[in-house]
Please model this.
Amino acid sequence: MAEPITAPRGTYDLLPDQSYKWHYIENILTSICKSFGYSEIRTPTFEYTEVFSRGLGESTDIVGKEMYTMLDKSGRSITLRPEGTANTMRALIQHGLLKGLLPVRVYYISSCFRYEKPQSGRYREHHQIGVELMGSHYPDADSEVIKLAYHALRELGIKNTRLEINSLGCRECRAEYIKSLKDYFKQNIHLMCPTCNERLERNPLRILDCKSEICKEIASKSPDILSFICEPCSEHFGLLKEQLSDAGIEFIINPRIVRGQDYYSRTVFEFVHEGAGAQGTVCGGGRYDRLVEYLGSDPCPGIGFGMGLERVLLIMEAEGIEIPVPEGPEIFIAHIGENSQKIAANLVFELQKSGIYALYDINRRGLKAQLKFADKVSSKRYLVIGDSELESGKATIRDMKTKEETTIDLNIGSLIAIL
Model:
């Protein structure tokens, strides 16, 4: 016998005893997105590689180290999507949505693929919900997206999070900051890790993200970007803070929140969780006013966020948030004999067509085994059909919990009426 094949490292199977938790989370998140006016968008699992190399930037770790890229049979380079924003922008551009009525509000729930070390809450195939709001320069758009994320986390029952916000300024004022940042890190280059040595010229903002304790200590004393932003960027940030305060949303300013891509500007934010076993960012986003230009479109401002569903579930479990277990069948119809089996099958099908969760025994076991099965699947009621029931045209429904019995006519109308 051949060795069983297992799932690739960094992936997992979502089994029936867990999938209901995902349905619960997804239903809450999609309902909230719709109440904010966001419509769903679905894009292909893979794209031409330039969507991500242009959309994320050649110098990013995602493009340089983490993407699943291959040649298709025509020799064209394609990549499994590593995140959701760039390919969503490609779709909006391709179908002309950014040239119509603005703003455009979309959300997606999709799988993403990154080759990185698997760890708790992080997989090589992971899932995220993202929202994108296109077509507004104003801080009202920023606060709307943050409010949506804030409300979503609260509706899921997650409370031990803090909102951290920052401003990256615009292209012009950020240039001065990056120059100052380079000068500072050059003084400490002999102490920094090899990766940050590479980042210094290529993408110095990413040094602020480094997980090395030495690099984090050095970065903690680096220049503060908020000291460099220009007056319009400062005004934009001030209005955002005012709107969040007016909405009763607490936040802290964290000048170390950055994004490695050039197209990010002004607002960036993260919701950070500190629960046991689930530390880190559960939701992160920011403003990307120049992204669509990198993908070959006319300028159009945008802001959005991504929220990892694996991380959400991990946090909910860490906080002891209970997710309702799905209820069992409304009724299980047991049968004795071939004629009874046919009647049971037809009755169950009619109930199912009426939207009622009903089952019967398709393995034609004995009555005792059938009732044991009904108990194991947590059926609320059961009904037994045998020769006497067929002859009288009546059957007895028994409530599995209260043990109460009710006699009904053996037809679909009577069954539906009592269920």
Q: What stands out?
A: The chain has a mean pLDDT of 91. The radius of gyration is 28 Å.
